[in-house]
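sorry for the late reply, my laptop died twice this morning and i had to redo everyting from scratch. anyway the thing you sent over, i finally got around to it. pasting the sequence first so we're on the same page, its 127 residues, then the predicted structure underneath. double check i copied it right bc i was rushing
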Amino acid sequence: MNKNILLVIRIIVTIILIQTLRFKFTAHPDSVYIFEILGLEPFGRIGIGILQLIAGILLLIPRTVWAGALLTLGLIGGALIMHLTKLGIVVNNDKGVLFITAIVTFILSAIILYLYRKDIPIIGEKL
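ok and here's the structure:
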């Protein structure tokens, strides 16, 4: 895959991760609502926000792209499971935008991890 396209994909995932932080870190009512339903308010909201920030930074550093993609897959995978089990696809009348964004982020992160699989220490050398 073209390196410029891959960079754009990494930036898109990073922007999605980072732009949602303002909701988590400012205790936006929608974010608080979601984490109250999950029983993770406030520590889960802030902790997941910190992990998202770390994932976004890792995605931008060439040597750690694989780690950022892996962390993003874990975070967004958890979000998707929560949508499907506790939150529902539509949250606070958002027309499913949060869920769709999570799906897009998950798919793009999986693509990134696949393309950077050889950079993973120890196991990447065997792939």
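Residues 83 and 89 are 6 Å apart (CA to CA).
thats about all i looked at so far, will dig more tmrw
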